[in-house]
């Protein structure tokens, strides 16, 4: 209009008028995504909640990795099953979950939790879980704390002193994982489960071991009373395992809160 010899208002005034009429905004259709819900999962015995994830194992070839799939029971911390593949896909993830249930004697969990990777959210996995009547649960985007048991398991493996810097082949990776997970399940005394091994908690023999440990301590205490000012106690076996135990901030009440209220 200035070029035609007419002046109405400054540019800033024109934008102010347009904003007042709702004309300065994105006119294209915008996708709307609801906020991802914070998962709250609890297991009070083995085979209630499983968690799985995929981590990369570096190869000797620059830029090439092997994919390690691991399923863990969050109550017992037992690695139910693991597999090493040269790629990641929804179909492999589906077969992996089927193999996990088969390796667990055909017992399936109530819930399977994972992050939001493409394999975890694939149609093939969703269809399988639906067919098996298993509840699927996912972490919030970019929130690693929503999958703490799988993350902790990977950290234990990769901080292991014998963890290789690189693997020569997929078979090398499988060989290492076979040794590591055998150790982890059967000889690793886990602080989160009362210094028992995951396998004994998973199959239900940990309580008998706990009783035997307590008898050993009591026998020593009776024989050496001068060593003690109070009766020693063992680390407790778990009664429940949470992913995001509810707090007052969540507006939910945990089981322990309910018991106290009762």
TrEMBL record:
Residue stretches of biased makeup (Acidic residues): 246-262
Pfam families, sorted: rve (PF00665)
Domain spans labelled Integrase catalytic: 42-206
Signal peptide range in chain numbering: none
Source domain of life: Bacteria
GO molecular function annotation: nucleic acid binding
Disordered as annotated region, ranges: 226-262
Listed GO biological process terms: DNA integration
Protein name: IS3 family transposase
């Amino acid at each position: 209009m200035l070029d035609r010899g007419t002046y109405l208002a400054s540019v800033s005034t024109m934008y102010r008028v347009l904003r007042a009429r709702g004309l300065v905004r994105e006119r294209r259709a915008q996708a709307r995504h609801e906020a991802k819900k914070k998962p709250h999962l609890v297991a009070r015995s083995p085979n209630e909640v499983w968690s799985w994830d995929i981590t990369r194992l570096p190869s000797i070839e620059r830029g090439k990795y092997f994919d390690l799939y691991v399923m863990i029971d969050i109550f017992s911390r037992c690695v139910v099953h693991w597999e090493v593949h040269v790629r990641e896909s929804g179909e492999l993830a589906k077969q992996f979950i089927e193999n996990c249930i088969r390796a667990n004697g055909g017992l399936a969990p109530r819930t399977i939790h994972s992050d939001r990777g493409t394999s975890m959210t694939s149609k093939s996995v969703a269809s399988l879980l639906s067919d098996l009547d298993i509840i699927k649960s996912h972490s919030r985007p970019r929130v690693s704390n929503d999958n703490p048991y799988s993350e902790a398991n990977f950290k234990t493996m990769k901080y292991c002193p014998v963890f290789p810097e690189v693997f020569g082949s997929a078979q090398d990776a499988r060989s290492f994982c076979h040794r590591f997970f055998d150790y982890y399940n059967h000889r690793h005394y886990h602080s989160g489960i009362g210094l028992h091994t995951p396998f004994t908690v998973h199959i239900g023999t940990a309580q008998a071991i706990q009783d035997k440990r307590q008898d050993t301590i009591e026998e020593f205490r009776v024989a050496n009373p001068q060593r003690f000012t109070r009766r020693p106690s063992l680390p407790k076996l778990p009664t429940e395992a949470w992913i995001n135990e509810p707090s007052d901030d969540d507006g939910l009440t945990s089981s322990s809160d309910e018991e106290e209220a009762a």
